[in-house]
Amino acid sequence: MSALVVTDLHAGYGDARVLHGVSLSVGEGEVCAILGPNGAGKTTLLRALSGMVRTRGTVRLGDADLAGRSPDTIARQGVAHVPEGRGTFMPLTVEENLRLGAYVRPASRRARAEVDADLERIHGYFPVLKTRLRQAAGSLSGGEQQMLAIGRALMLRPRLLLLDEPSLGLAPLVTRELFRIVRTINEQERTTVVVVEQNAHLALGIAQQAHVLETGRIVLSGTAEQIRADEQVAQSYLGYRV
């Protein structure tokens, strides 16, 4: 059963068109990797899914029609977007950043208790954040800021998690640990994930399916194993010949 269905999606900035008829579907609880060169439209695709750019076409999450909706409306439908560059609020504390992730929840005593419980859930994934709760987000390392950005997104209890270049600027060891945690989140919570990532090895390692974007169009789709075994992808993104 598909959680996300995108049909003939067009998007861009002003008169500049970036996406040209992108269609894909992601099954409930799956991880989908989006690969491609710089400028292919990967970031624009995630922005289109979260309502940050104008679109034409169809975007459905379950029974909900997201096309043309505002970002806050899409967030209320359960879409959490971790943008490239993390998007943390640097002057705010770690705890304040995390609690902001739950801003769409109704204000009630029960809701506050659930938010507190979810904070503990996030600490289970990212124990280092629990030791940094009173620190300003801007004082964290790059890896800790990325953990905070993902933790804040999870406070939404998302149905769909969008990750844009989560490894950007991180050391290889930190990156591998981050992807291990994303895999654990996907497996334990059955959260559907769409990840844009330059490190194709890591992205394909946690994904069930993948799509390759070039100049705003999908040029190759398949299972992660099929994409990994494709000679063109292997030479362009994985650094070896099949």
Automatic annotation (TrEMBL):
A matching Pfam family: ABC_tran
Span of domain ABC transporter: 4-240
Family matches, as InterPro entries: AAA+_ATPase (IPR003593), ABC_transporter-like_ATP-bd (IPR003439), ABC_transporter-like_CS (IPR017871), BCAA_Transport_ATP-bd_LivF (IPR052156), P-loop_NTPase (IPR027417)
GO MF annotation terms: ATP binding; ATP hydrolysis activity; branched-chain amino acid transmembrane transporter activity
SUPFAM superfamilies documented for this protein: P-loop containing nucleoside triphosphate hydrolases (SSF52540)
PROSITE patterns: ABC_TRANSPORTER_1 (PS00211), ABC_TRANSPORTER_2 (PS50893)
Example GO biological process: L-amino acid transport
Presence of keyword Magnesium: no
Swiss-Prot/TrEMBL keywords: Amino-acid transport, ATP-binding, Nucleotide-binding, Transport
Family: Belongs to the ABC transporter superfamily.
Protein name per its UniProtKB record: ABC transporter ATP-binding protein
Organism, scientific name: Nonomuraea cavernae
